[in-house]
Write a structure and sequence with these properties.
The complex is a heterodimer of chains A (127) and B (178).
Chain A: H1 7-19, H2 24-37, H3 44-57, E1 60-67, H4 73-83, E2 87-94, E3 102-105, E4 110-112, H5 115-123
Parallel strand pairs in A: 1-2
Antiparallel strand pairs in A: 1-3, 3-4
Chain B: H1 3-11, H2 17-20, H3 25-160, H4 163-177
Classes of the chains: A alpha+beta (127), B mainly alpha (178).
Chain lengths: 127, 178
């Protein structure tokens, strides 16, 4: 019988696999295959988010980090320290339009310290 | 020969004192009778006609006089009434003129008041519109200034921010976030 699993259960299952040391890319392929097979491709983003939440609750945080230039290891360490999790997995993006600074997004919080955000705030000061 | 002449001619033949006076009794009696007949005839047929005519005339005259007096009285009365009406008309005309003047003055003052109020409203509207335009211009200036500042900042910062400056910026942001 083909029973529909909840996103939470799927996320927990794959989180255990990631934490067990499985290749993240492989795990993601498995998730994609499962969703295609069960006809739930529209839920991909929600499942990934649930996976991140599940990992976060197990002490592993997936942080999306965007910056104008690639971050060096020292910077990543400081970021991990700031996030304060046992393990931090970075999903890095380089976006020159940010001009400078860094944008960090975790399941729990967001820190936008980019120059682009400040310029946007300046634009928002219009009346 | 005529009778009187006959009697006159016969009278001269009488004698006595009366005859001396030239009076002939026969003739006198005859004349008295003739005169009486005449008077009688006149009283009987002529005088009544004249008297009636005179009475009638008198009555007419009296009537005319009365009518004239009445007419005069009526004329005087009507003149009085006319004068009274004229006086009343003059008074009413004066009142009408005074009322008309008052109404005209009232209308004039009303018109002045209205035009003054309209002018004040127009001035207030114009001032309001000017104030709004000033505010809009200030806003536009403010926004344009911000836009220019943002553009200039973006250009300057884009050129000035290098890798080390970016790293320092990130480090400071992380420290502030702690």
């Amino acid at each position: 019988m083909n029973q529909k699993l909840s996103r939470r259960k799927i996320a927990d299952y794959f989180a255990e696999k990631v934490l067990a040391g499985d290749n993240v890319a492989g795990v993601l392929k498995e998730i994609a295959a499962y969703l295609i097979d069960s006809g739930r491709t529209r839920e991909i983003e929600l499942v990934v988010r649930a996976l991140e939440d599940s990992l976060s609750s197990r002490g592993t945080v997936v942080a999306s980090v965007a910056s104008a230039r690639p971050l060096d290891e020292t910077m990543k360490f400081e970021l991990a320290t700031l996030i304060g999790a046992k393990t931090v997995l970075f999903r890095e993006t380089v976006d020159p339009e940010l001009i400078g600074g860094v944008l960090i997004e975790t399941p729990q919080q967001t820190l936008d310290a980019t120059i682009k955000r400040k310029l946007t705030a300046l634009h928002g000061a219009k009346i | 020969m005529l009778v009187p002449t006959y009697f006159a001619s016969t009278a001269t033949e009488a004698t006595g004192p009366i005859a001396a006076l030239g009076i002939d009794w026969t003739l006198l009696v005859f004349q008295l009778i003739a005169f009486s007949l005449l008077v009688f005839a006149l009283n009987k047929w002529v005088y009544p006609i004249f008297i009636r005519a005179i009475d009638k005339r008198e009555a007419m005259i009296e009537e005319s006089t009365k009518a004239a007096v009445n007419a005069e009285k009526n004329a005087a009365k009507s003149q009085e009434e006319t004068e009274k009406l004229l006086k009343q008309a003059r008074v009413e005309a004066k009142e009408i003129v005074v009322t008309a003047k008052e109404q005209a003055a009232g209308m004039l003052s009303d018109a002045e008041l209205k035009s003054k109020q309209q002018a004040e409203r127009a001035i207030a509207n114009a001032e309001d519109a000017i104030a709004k335009e000033v505010i809009a211009a200030k806003k536009a200036l403010h926004n344009e200034t911000i836009e220019l500042i943002a553009l200039a900042t973006e250009k300057v910062v884009s050129q000035k921010v290098n890798a080390s400056a970016d790293a320092a910026l990130i480090k400071r942001a992380l420290e502030e976030a702690k």
